[in-house]
Structures are given as C-alpha cells and as structure tokens.
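Lecture notes, unit on protein representations.

Consider one protein chain, 321 amino acids long.
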Amino acid sequence: MLQLALFVLGAHAAPTVTLRNGVQMPMVAAGSWQYNSSAAYDSVTAALKAGFTMIDTALDYNNQDGVGRAIAESQVPREKIFVETKVPGCGMDPSMLNLFKCQEGTKKNLEKDLQLLNLSYVDLVIVHFPPIASMITRSCNSWSGGCQMVRAQWKAMEEFYKEGKARAIGVSNYCPSCFDCLKSATIQPMVNQVQFHLGMGTDPNSFVSYHKAHNIQLQAYSVLGNSLDHHASSEIVSGNLTVSIGKAHNKSSVQVALKWVVSQGIPAVTKSSNLEHLQQDLDLWSWSFTAQEQQALDTHSSPGGSPSFACNSLSASEVLV
C-alpha cells in the first residue's frame, strides 16, 4: 500500500481536454521515445510516481514490453492511466505497399501493440506518419493511390475502435491533404500529434486554425524544439526569454516552454526519467504568465519548425474550409 500512496501523492494532476467523441485526454503525457525496454520501464515507473496520468509510446519504439510492465506493476488502476500508442504508416515495411497488405498489416500491428503492452485496450492509438510516399511528394493526395492507401489504413483503425480496443483513434504528422482523403470516413481522426514548440508562433502554417475548424485535437511532440537532431534547443533551455520568465516565477526554462504549449490548448508530450523533473513538468497550472510575458512568448520566432515533416509548402490556410 505504501507504493500506491506514493502515487496518490503526485504533486500535480494535469487537466484534460475533451476529444470529439467525449473522451477526456490529459494535457501532459510522459513520452518513451529513444528508451529501450529497461529505460522505458524506469521512466514510466517514475512518471506514474510523479503523478502523470498519461503515457505515450509507439510500436516503432521497440520498448512496449517495458512500458506495459511498468503500468502493470504500478498499482495504479488501469482506468486511471491514459495509454497512447502508435502504429507505423504504410510503406515503411515493403510488404505493406499495396492496399490489402496495408490494411491487413495495420490490423496485425494494432494487435501486436496490445500484446506487447499486455493490455486489453488502449486509450488512444494513432497512425505514426502518413504513407511513406507522401513524405517524398510532401502530400497524401498528389500521387497515384495516395488517398486509397490512407483510407485503407484508416479502415483498420476504425475497426479496431469499433471493437472497443481503443477509446480514441487519431494520426500523427498528417497534413490537410491527408485529411482530405478521409472526408468520407465513418469515424474522423480525433487527434493529430505534430511538432509544436515555443518559437513556432501560435498558429504555424495555419495548422492550429485548421484543426480547430475541423474539430481535431492537436497534440505536441518535440516541445523543446530540434526534432531532427533529437536534442532540446539551447534557445529554449538557456535562452534569455525563457530563463528570465522562469526566474520571475521561480520556475525552470523548461517549465516556461511547456506551459506556453499547453496555454495554447495543445496537450504536450514530454520525457524524463528524473522524478524531480517529471514533477516539475506537471507543475504548469499553479502559476500564470503576465500579459506581457504571454505576448513575448507568443511572438517569439526562434527556434523555428514545421508541424509535420510530411507536409508540402502550402499552408493549411490555403485549404481551410
């Protein structure tokens, strides 16, 4: 019971956003990218102890057995943990290059996901990226068979959802052109996980406006910048703006950057195996930016970035309907 008590004493519980189907998703998730199974186990264990209620993983991370074991051993009731996972977009595996194999391969990956996590359901599963060819053409609907591939994979996602094996379904790194392919889908994507961080502005490439108009919840990865070299941006971690605002509130620059993301109404995925840092990552709602600080952060223009590495140069505003 002592272990359970430690979890209950987590310092701050993140608020939630409501997805289009009514599911409540926490505003902050503990990520597990780049961790092996052992490190993922330690990180998720620490995150749950710190008070996190959402865990983010993916089939491609090859660490889900560790994530699942940490969840099982946490003594936290399963319904109190929001588990998000991802399955690869079609085409990464050459065997999934045709429509039938794309759909069937996605079904197998979804079941494999559950098996590795040792769970009967997940709270959210998303397609990790658009079909591989879309990343070459920078669009889902500008190449022969593009939309058909998107629809084939999404059909498998819909079936998984209808079977009650996921409480919500979504995508990651999807562009407006990809959503165009799903206009006739029975179930629309509920979440799109994209890069979003301080320095990109409040509506980069009109992505935020587009998703609000279509009732798709954005979720942010690479919240400290530099998704390509996999290191936090020095501009965010040690820049004058974040450091000075942090000092004014007795908070860290990382907390300033995270708070700015969630202040836009966009849930954030963060990552650490350090208990103290994890607790700090949840302490985002006990304090507030001044109006001047908020404006300075909103208009800050470095480091830059694009919401999706798979999108074309057209801004979402050009297809906003």
